[in-house]
Design a protein that fits this description.
about 325 residues, about 35% helix, 11 helices, alpha/beta, two-stranded antiparallel sheet, 8-stranded mixed sheet, Rossmann fold
């Protein structure tokens, strides 16, 4: 019995009615289960969410779902995708290979195939790839961070099996990322998860040949994109404290970045609640500011806490989506 998988699945299912009913100001179009790799059409599918174009190319957000590398699905990120699309983004949310069927880092290979699908469909959807962003939560945050580190690291790209130069991300929003496998492995309930992912139990993780790929901070160099937005919860039972590895490395290299710590409950993946809770509502107001300033090309990004009136403005949205 994989206790970690049961916990992740229960968490997603228990919150589904609330976190995936989202009110938006725009009419969002969704295309689901688009195959991005015909060699495995069951696993390699993605969902698209996007607002009206209004004659303009849409900036793109590549959203990597979480689930401890062993579970999770784009289905549980419907509300999140709607919320991001309502910020004016073309959202691409792929599924990827999960363990134990796919050992880590096969999931990274799948994500790069999904990213290549984005490149191949740029003209069809009139996408603005000069403004391509990535986000991910939990295990998805770890994967997103690794992909950001890889874009200026040819050796890492080769190790991940990339045959061509991947698309470049302009920025990223990393949420409650699982960046520290050794800290997570202290929880004995995670042992089955690590065995399914790596073939090694939690006490023998360093014997895993690709152990370093589980720690994206090891690959952060002075070429890492500046102004990445790192978000974490004050009380996170799954990955609390993991953010320190990434933030310390960014500080050490003096790479400008932004940080938002969710106060109050500040639990794991709090952002999924969208505008239903103050801490998640504030995240999206900051995300809106971040995306707008990044697209405008500002060198220094400043996040200003919105007023209560501004926080409530979204409630005048068009309708609920399910």
């Amino acid at each position: 019995m994989n206790i970690a998988k049961i916990a992740f699945d229960f968490d997603d299912a228990a919150k589904d009615f609330f976190t995936n009913r989202v009110r938006t100001q725009n009419e969002i179009k969704a295309e689901k289960d688009v195959v991005y790799d015909a060699s495995d059409a069951e696993t390699c599918v993605l969902d698209l969410y996007y607002p009206p174009r209004n004659g303009k190319k849409l900036p793109v957000l590549f959203n990597v779902h979480g689930g401890g590398w062993i579970t999770g699905d784009k289905y549980w990120r419907r509300g999140l995708n709607l919320a991001f699309a309502d910020l004016g983004l073309f959202v691409v949310c792929p599924n990827y290979g999960l363990s134990p069927k796919f050992k880590y880092p096969a999931c990274v290979t799948h994500l790069y195939k999904a990213l290549e699908w984005v490149r191949e469909n740029t003209e069809k959807y009139d996408l603005d790839l000069d403004n391509l962003f990535i986000t991910g939560d939990s295990a998805g945050g770890q994967l997103a961070c690794l992909m950001l580190a890889a874009q200026d690291n040819p050796a890492l790209q080769q190790r991940l099996g990339l045959q061509t130069e991947p698309l470049r991300f302009k920025g990223g929003l990393l949420v409650c990322g699982a960046y520290d496998p050794e800290a997570m492995a202290k929880n004995p309930l995670s042992n089955k998860m690590w065995v399914e992912m790596t073939g090694c139990g939690r006490k023998h993780l360093r014997e895993f040949a690709d152990f370093d790929l589980l720690r994206p901070s090891d690959f952060i160099t002075d070429k890492f994109p500046k102004n990445v937005f790192v978000t974490y919860g004050r009380f996170d039972a799954f990955v609390g404290g993991n953010e320190k590895l990434v933030l310390d490395k960014l500080d050490e290299l003096k790479i400008p970045h932004l940080v938002y710590r969710a106060e109050g409950a500040g639990e794991h993946c709090f952002h999924l609640w969208h505008y239903r809770r103050p801490i998640s509502r504030l995240f999206f107001e900051y995300a809106r500011q971040y995306i707008d300033q990044m697209i405008a090309g500002k060198d220094e990004i400043k996040l200003v806490k919105p007023t209560r009136k501004e926080m409530k403005a979204h409630r005048k949205g068009a309708k609920y989506h399910k």
